Fold this protein.
Amino acid sequence: MSVTDSPGGRLVRWIGSWATVIAPATVLGALLFYFGYISARSQYEYFGIDVDAIGLTTQDYVMRSPQPLLVPLLVLTLLAVALLVLDLWVSTRMVAAGVLWRLPRILSTVGATVLGTGVVLLFSYPLVRDWPYYNLVTPVLFAVGAGLVGYAWRLSDVAQRLREHQPSADSPASAPAARSPDSSLWLRRTARMLVYIMIIAGVFWTTATVAQWAGRGQARDQARHLDTLPRVILDTKEPLYLRSPGVEERVLPTVEGQTFHYRYRNLRLLIVGRDRMFLVPEQWSASNSTLVVPLDGSVRIQFQFQNPR
């Protein structure tokens, strides 16, 4: 019996096969949680709520992530298809036209310029941090600039291989190419790894910014359409002294055994947390405040019907 057929070998193969499935799923789950958290934090910050005070679960954040990630994923997919088509066109047409020998230098120059602009913006943050598009333009410059540099290096490798297989007067290859020292090879690989890291960081930063903007946009849409939220009647034992416009306060008649003495109308349910509810006035105003109601029996909640007449 060979080593691979032994129980230990089968166990190693089984663990390796499951690791290839679990590792990407874990990374994907972590990314969905992160972008869902960023979106929810921006959304409820608009109403003056720290999202950590709501008590949402990991599953809640993951379920919220598809909406802010939909547009970035579609854009990245279309961009990847466009880049593949462009690469195919470059590999077939531009090689025959003889432009491939000059293209890597052009792309390297343009990419280094774009990347340098992103670096300048990054270190100029104290001066331009109030620019509303800073968190979008800066990572895009990093991703595009690093991507152009990386693609220029790839075309340079293709051109080098063509020179070796197709010697000409402009690109002599009769003599064997000298092998690069190990240090030079290590530097090139390290530089390419850093370029890939900058591309990933730029895409990640851009997507996080889009998720943040999506959360803020969703909050503004909710503020414009508060009538779509559930309407709530709130009874309390003590007056709340609410100053938000539109909220109606009424003193309930004194009845034996009645523990609630004040009733508030024109409130809407924004979200339910782990042990509390967050209510907002149904008439939006910048001076409004969010009311936090504990779910411990100290208040009485009624939901009004929303059926059309």
